[in-house]
Design a protein that fits this description.
By secondary structure, the chain is an alpha/beta fold. It has four domains: about 5-115, Cobalt-precorrin-4 Transmethylase, domain 1 (3-Layer(aba) Sandwich); about 115-250, Methyltransferase, Cobalt-precorrin-4 Transmethylase, Domain 2; about 265-370, Cobalt-precorrin-4 Transmethylase, domain 1, CATH 3.40.1010; about 390-475, 2-Layer Sandwich (Methyltransferase, Cobalt-precorrin-4 Transmethylase, Domain 2), CATH 3.30.950.10. Helix content is about 30%, strand content about 25%. The protein has 17 helices and 26 strands. β9 (about 190-195) and β10 form a beta hairpin. α3 (about 60-70) crosses α4, α6 (about 145-155) runs parallel beside α7 and α16 packs parallel to α17 (about 420-435). The longest helix has 17 residues, at about 320-335. The two termini are about 20 Å apart.
Amino acid sequence: MPSESKLFIVGIGPGSQNLLTLQAREAIEGSDFVVGYTPYLELVSDLLQGKTISSTGMGREVDRAKEAVALLEEGSVALISSGDPNVYGMAGLALEVASGNVDLGRVEVVPGITSFSAAASRAGITFTRSVAVISLSDLLTPWAEIEKRAEMSSEMKMPMAIYNPRSKKRTWQLERILEIVAQGGGADRDLLVAKNVSRQGEALWWTSVGQMLEREEQRQKVDMFTLLIVRGEGMKVGREGSGEDGPVKAEGAPEAFSETAPGSRINLVGIGPGDPSHLTIEARDLIKRSDLILGPARHLRAVRGIAGGEMVFTEGGLEERIKSRLDAAKEAASKGETASILFGGDPSTFSSAWRALQPSELGTQRVHLSPGVGAFSSAAARIGAPLVGDFALLSGRDEDAPGRVSRLLEGGFAVVVYNQNESKLAATADAASSLDPDRPFALVQDATRPEERIFLGRAADLTRPNFQGRRCTLILAGPKARIDEGKIITRRGYQTKYDY
């Protein structure tokens, strides 16, 4: 067995190669073998020259994982997963299969842009408080559990990102989820339909929960390549007039909605967790060709090697810094120059990007939101496969975060808390350990940066680490998770369908 060979579980993003990260590209190019679902391999076909390719069809996930592990005997392997491997992808299964067969130190999860981040960026959506991520596929998850999580998310008025909403054989599940939201008083909640995001045939439009529930013709347009985002508390929607042509707008569309516009003079760029290898190709190219690059000093340092224009760090308080960047970007755009404002992680999730999408800030200037690898994606990848099923993201700045964590864990979600600080950790620890003291967790600070710190343990150990400062992400793994060789491995449910 080549001792230097590695298994890369590679997230290739939602489809467009512009949203492939530099790390993903490098992992594929550096592998001897590439294993994947045939349509996903076609999305990266130009990177496969000279590789030994193994492609399989739908429903062969276990076969792909087994083959990828076996091929480590002969060289390095890239196992392809669409979007992010931890979000209904191949991370959990591949680590399950690898466990006990190879040293897990030779297995690396390469995070990618997940579909809800890409859809949010295209639609000018930002999440400031929370978002629940739910799949309606009941192949591996009992429907009763899916329904319970949808009810809980609806009751908590959380924005909901819904994956796998409808297939040719599964037609009633979408209608049932819409009924749950409507019965909870959410019939008027805005609903984004995002189809084939960043792929050929992309289409985005707005409707409402009630309208889609009433109109069969709308539901028939939804398929497995469609992602839905149900509006909830703390979700802000883009700027009127920022798109070039704008999306199809259904009756009842939010008045302040327009797609963000590629080719804009002002770009809000997600640069990922810190290491430049997590930049998407689009982000790298935007930074290269921008006349002006604005952002916190740590972000500017991260991209110094590729920046093409002037880099400007603004001082002062938070509000002052944000306003200064927006004013500078607007001035540059008025002179025909291109400006990029940098955001850590993904700009659609718990960042200040929402301010730039308000009409009062940038007027009629067109704005483009460029998605990045989120803190939850990078932190999850560093510790294995803690998510893989339904999960919820929470802002640690929310005063009610510990109570929300408790409810969500009870509902069977994995939970990620951004900007977790020491003062709130004890309350979160009490909530988590009282429900399941053995639930694996991780605290990841400054993921992928030189100063990175990771503490891995059980919920009952949460109060032990002395973590201080910012940029700390807390992950409480989903049900059926365990710690093995320093990795969290979560069983997705394949063992109920397949023998491995």
